[in-house]
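This protein record is not my work; I was only asked to verify it. Where you disagree with what is written, explain briefly why. This is what I was given:
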Amino acid sequence: MLAFDALIRDVVDFHDDLVRNVKGFGPPQSPFDDLSASAEDQAVAIAAESHGQVPSPAPLVTRPFDYGTVVTYPFVPQNWHATRFSDGLAYGVWYGSLDLKTTVYETVHHWHRFVTDSYPDLDRDIVGERRAFRVRCDAILIDLRGKERRERRLVDRNDYGFTQQLGRYLRDQRQSGLLAVSARWAGRNAAVFRPEALSDVRDLCALRYIMNPARDTVRVERVKGRRWMAVRPSRLR
């Protein structure tokens, strides 16, 4: 086990909002409107689809835990996946940022990589719909902000080996989570290990990502047709 003592000497009593950016939809619509125009039929279909699902009191908060390991939610090991602070073998991590723009840089990087793995030369626009939410976090968090100057592996863009070991160590020590500098730009992220630290989910905004894989461009809109941000994914690698 690596020695982490020099990195985990600071904590912050965190009581504030984090921003969570997830795949979403544009205008609200029924998932079964292609099967029937009847509202009654759609309601029956929704009820049938929901039957047997594990209930969650706040799915926007708990979704990463519903597919991982938690104290109060079911374990679903087949859905764990590797992230910066988890190797995907034993637990899930909920990620949020201290500001909206940081979530954009983070999610653009991962979405662009996913698309270009299959269609690197596609020269046309691909649209991704997303939603951002504010989530209250109340927890004692390990404060790693600034520690990247001492330990560059905290912000390694390609190798998560060190941070995954650190994440496992902190979770084994029953820590609630951590704050760290983003590896994609100058923002700050939180990695939360315990769902009880999170509450009070509120809608923030809808986002549209318009990407051209061949041209290394992603246009981000908060209002359809009006550019809010422009990101070059090659600069996030």
